[in-house]
Amino acid sequence: MSRRPAHPARTVTAAAAALAAVGALTAAAAPAAAHGRPPARHVLLLSVDGLHQSDLAWYVARHPRSALARLTGAGVEYTHAATTNPSDSFPGMVGQLTGGDPGTTGVYYDDTYNSALLPAGTTTCAGAKPGAEVDLTEDLDKNQDSLDAGQGLSGLPGSILQMTGAPAALLDPSKLPVDPKTCRPVYPHSYLRVNTVFEVARAAGLRTAWSDKHAAYDILNGPSGKGVQDLFTPEINSKAIGYSAGDWTKDNAATEQYDGYKAQAVLNEIDGYDHGRAHKGGTPAVFGMNFQSVSTAQKLPTSDGLTGGYQAKGQPGPLVVRNLDFVDRQVGLFLAELRKRHLAGSTTVILSAKHGQSPTDPKALTRIDDGPLLDGLNAAWKAAHPGSGDLVAHAVDDDAMLLWLTDRSQAAADFAKAYLLTQSGTGNDIDGKAKPFSTSGLKTVYAGAAAARYFHARPGDSRVPDLVGVTQYGVVYTGGKSKIAEHGGAHADDLDVPLVVSGAATPHGVRVAAGVHTTQIAPTILRLLGLDPRDLDAVRTEHTPALPVR
Fold first, then answer.
1. Burial of 318 from C-beta contacts in 10 A (0-12 / 13-18 / 19+)
2. I need a surface site. Which of 99, 227, 440, 504 has the fewest CB within 10 A?
3. Alpha helix locations (H) across 251-369?
4. What is the C-alpha to C-alpha distance for residues 199 and 42, in angstroms, rounded to an integer?
5. How far apart are the first and last CA of the chain?
6. How many whole angstroms separate alpha carbon 236 and alpha carbon 255?
7. Closest Cα to residue 367, out of 434, 277, 429, 303?
8. d(CA 385, CA 269)
9. Distances (CA, A) of 26 to 20, 31, 40
């Protein structure tokens, strides 16, 4: 028996008419403030890591009275939204809050390489050889084993809301790459090439807040270092107190508990306090959080007695379903609190995801240990070039392959491409059984200048990978059997994320089938607040339009 929501979504034709009636938002449009009151006073951005548009549609169809159904029904749902490529957390989140793709922002992954910077710990810069890892993970924390990243709070985890809202102070400067010009550490916020929504809002005198998973999300402060007034970043990869599995991602119940701290921070901010409810400064104009629990439910084979991942192509398994329920409850709490505080009529909620997760078809999974592939590449290079060192300076392989090379010539990149496309071997499938692979698990390889063009970057840019491998569907690079999905790649399962704009200043029940991009969230936020999207560097560079919300 099929059920329909109380306010069925209009078709794209009706949606287009509704949007045209009030005028689509574009980055070139004049700021709303110039015409009077801005459409919204607050924008709450929620990013659910791993969530696909298909997951949202599946859940809403089966739970028409859920908070997620109410959210989508009270706004505009973009059914063909794509996140950044690479589809990793850092470029994904940075894209949503700057309006730019990696080729513009300079942020390709959470762990990359820069051929122009000096290695972490360099103190004598004159004559030092450039080339440095740029790590934006828990490794930068003063204490990566602690939920507070090394702040030294007592009573953890219960005291975590007392964590500082200025996490840059919790980063160990000796672990940061060094700028050869100044011989000083490069903090995440100064590594970003463009400004952020938070900086534009601050310049307009508006309040800002955000909650995320690493202290390195200092990057969202933007080049000024001052964009986010209240940045709450409990360390997700710290030891999960009270759980035996390891960090907060290894047991899904632990991830839900972890996400609960950030959700409480958002509720406190809705009430007009800082994340820890210690000081009252008013509800932020731009604020929000990321959820991790759906992502870990997609990756873990089992947790808490439930099977992770998907039962069949696009059909969530029991652990993923439990976490969709969890996210739904948190969204319901946010919506209820907005109503309680009489903010529902002045707040726009945006729901999306930094990335998806691949594969959603368990039968397609092929786990490949990338270690022997890279070792073999280095050995082949040294055999062909006697006296040379390793060719691979840095590699990031999840469900894509990104390589930075010690020799950045086109010939070296072509050598790496040719080698990888001739390698075959045996990985393992969803059941851990042997499964053969060919061409290193790769479908397409872009090398040298082609890799730069792939990301719309300048060839020779110090940050762009020298080789990008698009994997065959289902390939996940891992040395073990504890992971059944990953992200970072260019498959639909990686890129196709939900995008909903709901609440103040939006029509109800509109579904837009035209393709959009999550980078359009940034100019949309500013437009909703009556600010000029052209104040964002990446919007001017890429001509990123705001979403058609009004």
1. middle
2. 504
3. 252-270, 293-299, 318-340
4. 15
5. 35
6. 8
7. 429
8. 59
9. 12, 10, 16
Whether pTM exceeds 0.90: yes
pLDDT for res 420: 98
CB atoms within 10 A of CB 168: 20
Alpha-carbon distance of 371 to 244, in angstroms, equals 28
Token representation of residue 99: 């309006």
Q: What is the block-wise mean pLDDT of the chain (550 residues), using blocks of 10 residues?
A: 34 43 38 60 98 98 98 98 98 98 98 98 97 98 98 98 98 98 98 98 98 98 98 98 94 98 98 98 98 98 97 96 98 98 98 98 98 98 98 98 98 98 98 97 98 97 98 96 96 98 94 97 98 98 92
| Angle formed at CA 465 by CA 102 and CA 424, multiple of 5 degrees | 125
* 134/509 Cα distance (integer angstroms): 43
Nearest to 309 by CA among 492, 431, 397, 491: 431
Residue 550 is predicted with a pLDDT of: 64
Q: What is the 3-state secondary structure (H, E, C) of 25-55?
A: CCCCCCCHHHHCCCCCCEEEEEEECCCCHHH
* Sequence letter at residue 397: D
Please tell me the distance from the alpha carbon of residue 107 to that of residue 189, in angstroms, as a whole number: 11
Distances (CA, A) of 423 to 113, 373, 418, 438, 510: 25, 8, 9, 6, 49
The pLDDT score that the predictor gives to residue 24 is 42
Sign for the pseudo-dihedral over CA of 56, 267, 83, 89? negative
Rounded-to-integer distance, Cα 504 and Cα 368, Å: 47
The one-letter amino acid at 123 = T
Tell me how far CA of residue 333 lies from CA of 108, 280, 509, in angstroms. Answer: 34, 20, 21
Contact 109, 401 (CB under 8 A): no
Nearest to 324 by CA among 283, 344, 353, 367: 353
Residue 148 DSSP class: T
pLDDT of residue 4: 27
- Tokens encoding 2: 């099929």
Paired with 316 in beta bridges are: 310
pLDDT at 549 (0 to 100): 81
Question: Look-up: residue for tokens 């103040």?
Answer: 504
For the chain, helix, strand, coil in percent to 5 are 35, 20, 45
Predicted local distance difference test score (pLDDT) of residue 505: 85
Looking at residue 85, its amino acid is: N
Q: Are 308 and 302 in contact (CB under 8 A)?
A: yes
